[in-house]
Every structure is written in C-alpha cells, then in structure tokens.
Amino acid sequence: MSQYEQALDQLRTHPQRWLITGAAGFIGSNLVEALLAANQIVVGLDNFTTGRRTNLELALRAAGAGAPKRFEFVEGDIRSQDLCRKVCRNADVILHQAAQVSVPASVTDPTATHEINVTGFLNVLLAGREAGVKRVVYASSCAVYGDSTNLPLAEEEPPRPLSPYAASKLANEGYAAALAHITGLEAVGLRYFNVFGPRQDPKGVYAAVIPLWTSAMIQREPVRIFGDGSTSRDFCPVPNVVQANLLGASAPLGPGRHEVVNVAVGARTSLNDLFETIRARLQTDYPHLRGFQPVYEPFRAGDIRHSHARIEKARQLFGYTPSLSVQQGLTETLAWFRKAEK
What we know:
- By secondary structure, this protein is α/β, with parallel strands linked by helices.
- It has helices at 3-13, 26-37, 53-63, 81-88, 103-108, 110-131, 164-183, 209-218, 238-250, 271-282, 312-318, 326-341; strands at residues 17-21, 41-46, 71-75, 93-96, 135-141, 186-192, 195-196, 224-226, 232-233, 236-237, 258-263, 269-270, 295-297.
- Helix 1 packs across helix 9 and helix 6 packs parallel to helix 7.
- The chain is globular, with a radius of gyration of 19 Å.
C-alpha cells in the first residue's frame, strides 16, 4: 500500500474539517471532490472571478451520496480579513488555492495581483493561526524559478521571478516560512508545474495549452504554437496535485516547520509531441483532424523555453509518487472534454 493510500485510509477513519480557498476553480474543485469522497467535512470559499459553480456541482456529484451534507460553500474574497476569520473557524487544515494565476494579467495590473496573491494569502495565514489550524498547504508555482536552465529544477535552485505573478508566489513562501518560525504554524508550499485535467477552462485569453488546444481541435479552430514547437514543459495531471495536497497535509512535520516542494511528473514533453498526441487521440471521433496541422508563430517575449522538475524532495518528505503519467492524464482529460463538448 502506497503512502497516499495509507493517508486516504487514515482520513476515512478520522474525518477532519478542511477549508479550501478557490474551491470552485479547476484544482480547487478536484480537491473538494477527493476530500468529500474520503468522508471529510469541507468548507469551500470562492468569489467566482475565475471559478465556476458548475465545477462544484460536478465535484459534489462525483463525490457520491451524502457528499452535499458534508459540504458548506461561502461566496467571498480572501482580501476580506473578517471573511477569512469566519471560514477558518474550526478548520483543521487549510488548502489554499485562491489566486490570480495569469502572468500577463499580473504584468498589466501588478497591484491587483499583489492584493489577491500576497495580501489575501497573508489574511488566510493569520486567520488560520488565530483559529488554531494545524497546517496550511498552499499553491506556489514553478514560475519562481524563472528562466533557469539548470534542469531538472530542484527546490534549492535560486529563485528568479520574472513577473509580478512569480514574485507574488515567492512572497507567499517567504511569509509562510516567517510565520511558521514565529508562530509555530505548520505550512507546506507546493510548486505546481503545468497542471492539467478535467474541469480546466479552455476559454479565455490565458487558457492553459492542453484545454485550449483540445477545445480548438474539436471546434475546428486553429492551434497556435509559439516558436518551433521544441519548447517543453513538465505537464502534471491534476490527480498528482490532489495527492500532493493530501500528503502535504498529513505528513509529519512538527510545529514551526515550513517546507516547499515541486509537484510534477518529473518528465519533459515538447509542444510538438503534445500536439501530435492530442490530435492522434481525438481523430478517431473527429475525422476532420486527419492531416490537421498547427500554426507556428514567433516566440513570445518572456516565454520560458524548457521546464522540468526534480521531485525527489516530495517523495522523500511525503511519499509522493505521481498517480498518473502524462499519457494517462491525457486519456482522462480528453475523455472529459469529449463529453463536455457534446
């Protein structure tokens, strides 16, 4: 039995009360589903800036009978100190996912990004400490590494934030470490690498590449690749992120301990290979994709050429082992999009 399976068994026999910020988002709703399926009590917070009510409806349905009775939803914003105090009350663990996640939007309006990602996060930390929360697990980002070419990226790599978004995530790590030291609040930061999966939004200017391309192919729209397609990413199926959050919440750390770990598969996939895989998987149901080709455009300023994570630290600290490979994650994701696009 894996460490993750042991953690799930422990949760089922000893239910806790969890607060999930950003609960209506892509990752947040997957966490809601997993925890409710494990017989937990969950409070979800979201202001629906990017989250969707349908994500919560789907999560509750997938979690099984009885799940709605153990779920409470609060609509609101983490920038409100009073609201953060309210939702943290009686919580055992906080999984913090709420954020402004767009790099271009952070460049356009760095003040708003700071207010949401830094001030909002600090509100959650302080409210959690005040409420006696055992641990805060929060979403950081591989963006803190910037354009480092020292691959695969380890947590000891000096940060090089190249956008206000990346700077805000690095600030989160600093505040969590400082408050853990001062107050004894246990905290774990998860540096996500290119997460994808069911319920990820394919619409909008800042949509992630896998849902964007999948929707475009199904809808007979152009697929654009910036550069020559050799750009690579460490794409990570969302079940791996769920696993990392639950292991990060249960692994023994001790008062005042703060850790930051990479969450990824630990492998690189080029954009050209990703395009061919998605096209080949879809063309059985969508014959118009036979011979379909992407549109290549110039590299965009600031784009990182390659990203690849070392995941040994998460394995050593938490027993993290990716639940799904990229190919397995694509199978689940494309099946979901086929159904959603009908």
